[in-house]
Specification:
elongated, 158 residues, mainly alpha
């Protein structure tokens, strides 16, 4: 077995997809810091701040979905891993890259947008929905990357 064999490359693709969790962890952390500042001033805003803090967590979920899809398709989850050609492994690797990379960057960007929305919510609670919309706009790019990864994954023949 070589580090560049099909199975190793497919596993690398699943690992790269799961890296989207880095963006989510950072984004949720950024938003959580801002949320804590809001709560220091008004503890009654916990529900509103929790919604905005949770939004950057979706990229990690998307990456995890693609990682599980890859691991399932290659048989690792069932314990019957198939022998992949190097080309097949590269296809799986490429399928993990869009959500892995975009998930990192969009999770961080969404955390920053959520932090700004939290500041808006602190000063003008009635404007919270507008802050959610701004924060959700970043989400569209993670969804696009998820779609690209899924379409690539769907078309890999084993």
């Amino acid at each position: 077995m070589s580090i560049f064999d099909g199975n190793s490359l497919a596993l690398l693709g699943a690992a790269i997809a799961a890296l989207a969790g880095i963006g989510s962890a950072m984004g949720v952390g950024i938003a959580g810091q801002a949320a804590s500042g809001v709560l220091a001033e008004d503890p009654k805003k916990f529900g509103k701040t929790l919604i905005l803090q949770a939004l950057p967590g979706t990229q990690g979920i998307y990456g995890l979905i693609i990682a599980f899809l890859i691991l399932n398709k290659i048989g690792l989850l069932s314990g019957n891993m198939v022998e992949l050609s190097q080309a097949q492994g590269l296809y799986f690797l490429m399928a993990g890259i869009p959500i892995g990379l975009v998930g990192i960057w969009s999770g961080i960007a969404q955390g920053k947008a959520a932090a700004a929305a939290l500041q808006l919510t602190a000063k003008r609670p009635e404007q919270m929905v507008k802050g959610i919309i701004y924060t959700a706009m970043v989400e569209t790019y993670a969804i696009f990357a998820l779609l690209v990864s899924v379409l690539m994954w769907l078309n890999i023949q084993i």
